[in-house]
């Protein structure tokens, strides 16, 4: 039996739209076993227990890349990563399925090659790269369409809180609300803030990270999709926190520089949003 563990991820890190992401300590587990039937999938809703399941699609892709026949397989999914909440659940499925195929055929695969395959399936590399490398990663496709990944050190002072609403947002839908073009002025704003962010997360200065995490590229266009965003933003601004939309939402990620502030903010938000999950999380550094 093959067992694969893949971490959840929080993409964009505010200003790194489609190129930055962070692995966190929530996990999806996938097992792959010989099966007498051609396909059995357990551990997910019935409507996903068929050949359109993303884990299975990625498994097939892995077999094809290896030029191997697709074996009869039983896939079991056990996941802590909520679906369509901006925590990279589809990236866990893609990475899990691909890794499963490569392990099935005892074929080692480099992290770079795995990221390349996974990013092609996902359409953007900012979830799959940290899911594979761990930590905070920057990832993009270069001019030869090769994925390039850089992992950044993160100062241990930063504490994270995942604020997970009780509703889903589809990434596809959240991409349709984005404008088609960006002015030079906005591009310059975004590049400078993203550079500042990669510097600030390595350091300890709250004010620098807060200044850096002011996205102009997607959050202004998406925040209306998250009912409660403005209230949470007001609370975090008043209580010494930094807030960004995790991936395309609905999760909001809060950053503080000490656990006491994190606890106070968590309590305040949980009091106002009783049905939401508000949970402290940490970075997964291994992928
Ligand atoms: N970068 C992607 C987006 C992440 O914001 O649409 C989706 O999880």
TrEMBL record:
<dbReference type="InterPro" id="IPR006203">
    <property type="entry name" value="GHMP_knse_ATP-bd_CS"/>
</dbReference>
<keyword id="KW-0028">Amino-acid biosynthesis</keyword>
<dbReference type="InterPro" id="IPR000870">
    <property type="entry name" value="Homoserine_kinase"/>
</dbReference>
<comment type="pathway">
    <text>Amino-acid biosynthesis; L-threonine biosynthesis; L-threonine from L-aspartate: step 4/5.</text>
</comment>
<dbReference type="GO" id="GO:0005524">
    <property type="term" value="F:ATP binding"/>
</dbReference>
<dbReference type="GO" id="GO:0009088">
    <property type="term" value="P:threonine biosynthetic process"/>
</dbReference>
<comment type="function">
    <text>Catalyzes the ATP-dependent phosphorylation of L-homoserine to L-homoserine phosphate.</text>
</comment>
<keyword id="KW-0418">Kinase</keyword>
<comment type="similarity">
    <text>Belongs to the GHMP kinase family. Homoserine kinase subfamily.</text>
</comment>
<feature type="binding site">
    <location>
        <begin position="82"/>
        <end position="92"/>
    </location>
    <ligand>
        <name>ATP</name>
    </ligand>
</feature>
<keyword id="KW-0963">Cytoplasm</keyword>
<dbReference type="GO" id="GO:0004413">
    <property type="term" value="F:homoserine kinase activity"/>
</dbReference>
<keyword id="KW-0067">ATP-binding</keyword>
<keyword id="KW-0791">Threonine biosynthesis</keyword>
<dbReference type="GO" id="GO:0005737">
    <property type="term" value="C:cytoplasm"/>
</dbReference>
<dbReference type="InterPro" id="IPR020568">
    <property type="entry name" value="Ribosomal_Su5_D2-typ_SF"/>
</dbReference>
<dbReference type="InterPro" id="IPR036554">
    <property type="entry name" value="GHMP_kinase_C_sf"/>
</dbReference>
<keyword id="KW-0808">Transferase</keyword>
<dbReference type="Pfam" id="PF00288">
    <property type="entry name" value="GHMP_kinases_N"/>
</dbReference>
<protein>
    <recommendedName>
        <fullName>Homoserine kinase</fullName>
        <ecNumber>2.7.1.39</ecNumber>
    </recommendedName>
</protein>
<dbReference type="InterPro" id="IPR014721">
    <property type="entry name" value="Ribsml_uS5_D2-typ_fold_subgr"/>
</dbReference>
<keyword id="KW-0547">Nucleotide-binding</keyword>
<feature type="domain" description="GHMP kinase N-terminal">
    <location>
        <begin position="53"/>
        <end position="135"/>
    </location>
</feature>
<dbReference type="InterPro" id="IPR006204">
    <property type="entry name" value="GHMP_kinase_N_dom"/>
</dbReference>
